[in-house]
Amino acid sequence: MMRYLCAAAGCTLLLLAPPAAADICKYADRDGNLHYTNVAPERGWKKISCGVGGTPGPNGTETRSAPSPGSFPKVDAGTQKGRDELRRKVLTEELTTEEQLLDEARIAYGNGSAPPTPEELNQPQKYAERLARLRQAVSLHEKNIEALKKELAATR
Questions:
Q1: Residue 111 sits in which domain range?
Q2: What is the pTM of this model?
Q3: Does residue 117 lie in a domain region?
């Protein structure tokens, strides 16, 4: 009993202790190598940024430290439009295929009343397993259709 009380007291103390926090800073050494650390660096290192993901903005939220470099590859609007159209076409084709597969799965499942095969008449467990697989297939296709419709809605 005493062991439980000690454990509970220890857990309570851990919950009441303030969390430790430290900023991770990015430094460049004399040779130009980048280092990330939460402790004071050697003398001569140049501080580049501090904090996770960027520098704090005026309202306390983090902002990006720098825009993309000029050498970063860019895609012109026409190429991007073509890629978006191709993506939309592929998603539409996938949606059509999934809808057909759902129709087939629903027919095979027959609302849980698919006729048992001659082998399943003697083994009801096999029949129940087949119905479960058919129900799972219907559910999977329904989820796929929902996800594809959501993805298509986001492309418009």
A1: 78-155
A2: 0.52
A3: yes
